[in-house]
Amino acid sequence: MSALTPPPDRFSNHNTVPIIAVIGMLELALKRADHGELDRPAIEVANGSANELLDLIGDILDIARIESGRLALNPERANLRQLAESVVRVFDGLSRQKDLDLVLELDSRINTDVLIDPLRFKQILSNLVSNA
Question: Taking Cα atoms as reference points, which of 115, 120, 113, 114 lies closest to residue 73?
C-alpha cells in the first residue's frame, strides 16, 4: 500500500459518519437558534464528531508517515495521570450521551512524571477508549 493510499479498513463509508453528524447537529442547532433557543447538546455532538473526524485524518496522516519512515517520537517529561485524565475528559460527554460510565482507575503511584511522547500516548489511549 502506498503512503498516499488510505487503508481500506480505515477509510470507508463509516468515516463519513462524523461529518454527517456535524452537519446534522449544526443544522438542528441553527433551526433552534432561529427560535431563540440554544441547543447545547446538538453543539456538543457536532463538536465531538468534528474531533473524531480530525482524529481520523490524523491517523491517516500518521499511517502515511509510518510508511514513509518519517514518524518521529518527541519524548518529554509528562505526568501520566494528567495525560490519562485529559483523555477521559474528552470522552466524558460522549460516554454520558451513550449512558455509559467512563471511570479512570489508576494506582496512586501513577501520579509521577515520565519521559514519554504525550501526543502519541494520548493518541494510543484515545484509540483504546474509542474502540472499547
Answer: 120
Under the banding of pLDDT at 50, 70 and 90, the label for residue 5 is: low
Beta bridge partners of 114: 78
For 31, residues 6+ apart whose C-beta sits below 8 A from its C-beta are none
Task: Write the burial class of residue 89 (CB in 10 Å: 0-12 exposed, 13-18 middle, 19+ buried).
Answer: exposed
Instruction: Using DSSP bridges, classify how beta strands 76-79 and 113-116 pair: parallel, antiparallel or unpaired.
Output: antiparallel
pTM: 0.57
What CATH number belongs to 73-132?
3.30.565.10
Q: Are 29 and 43 in contact (CB under 8 A)?
A: yes
What three-state secondary structure class fits 20? helix
Ordered DSSP codes for 22-74:
HHHHHHHHHHHHHTT---HHHHHHHHHHHHHHHHHHHHHHHHHHHHHT-----
Residue 14 is classified by DSSP as G
Instruction: Please check whether residue 126 is in contact with residue 55, taking contact to mean a CB–CB distance below 8 angstroms.
Output: yes
